[in-house]
Amino acid sequence: EAGVTQFPSHSVIEKGQTVTLRCDPISGHDNLYWYRRVMGKEIKFLLHFVKESKQDESGMPNNRFLAERTGGTYSTLKVQPAELEDSGVYFCASSQGWASTDTQYFGPGTRLTVL
Amino acid sequence: AQKVTQAQTEISVVEKEDVTLDCVYETRDTTYYLFWYKQPPSGELVFLIRRNSFDEQNEISGRYSWNFQKSTSSFNFTITASQVVDSAVYFCALSEANYGGSQGNLIFGKGTKLSVKP
DSSP code of A96? Predict the structure, then answer.
């Protein structure tokens, strides 16, 4: 069974440009999460989809970030326009259900560098 | 407020040594879940264990063992007879149960980088 995949693995862009990150969850997983780790800091929650609906987006830093999950399969996270402080590693995770016993499985992350 | 503290930023040991990674958490909820994830050099976070707040039994899985103590709000992770392949960053995380028992998002510590030298 394929795990969570993320694309690209690394992106380098200039301040003011737009970048779109993609996450493909494990097949059949309704729940999809985005997290971010800024250099030297903790991994922080961004948002949670249940199928195509945003269940919790309390962690999204500002309106330059837009997440979508059309059709309830893969998800994209767009940053527009990117700022220097957006640099970090963006992780995606998925879980089959939303019960307390469900485990979140993580992808390898996308390392974003904004110059 | 919820918080996870991993006070050890980096640990270096020689192969076959035992090593304990510390994790202290803060939460006001009575129902919560604790996790350990491993991040090898390849980058992905690999799930190791989940423990709920009502189960204080220690767990052993091969060379790995976990000590959960609610009295000290700690969930420490011990690797016995460490191996070079154990070199990774290890993250402790906390999740509080939402209304109805569903899982909340994960709150991570900063991670502990473990280097095991041959």
Answer: S
Condensed to tens digits (0 to 9), the pLDDT of residues A1-43 reads 679 999 999 999 999 999 999 999 999 999 999 999 998 789 9
CB B14: neighbour CB atoms within 10 A?
11
The minimum CA-CA distance between B70 and chain A, rounded to whole Å, is 19
Asked whether A47 and A57 are in contact (CB, 8 A), the reply is: yes
In chain A, residues with a C-beta closer than 8 Å to the C-beta of B50 are: 101, 103
B36, two tokens:
């350990």
Contact yes or no for A93/A106 (Cβ under 8 A): yes
B5-51 tens-digit pLDDT:
999 999 999 999 999 999 999 998 888 889 999 999 888 899 999 88
A108 touches chain B (CB under 8 A): yes
A91 part of contact set with chain B, CB < 8 Å: yes
For A69-92, write each residue's pLDDT tens digit: 988 899 999 999 999 999 999 999
The answer to whether A25 contacts chain B (CB < 8 Å) is no
Contact A113, A15 (CB under 8 A): no
List the single range of A104-108, B46-50, B71-75, B95-99 with lowest mean pLDDT: B95-99
> With contact defined as beta carbons under 8 Å apart, do A15 and A84 qualify?
yes
B108 touching chain A per CB within 8 A = yes
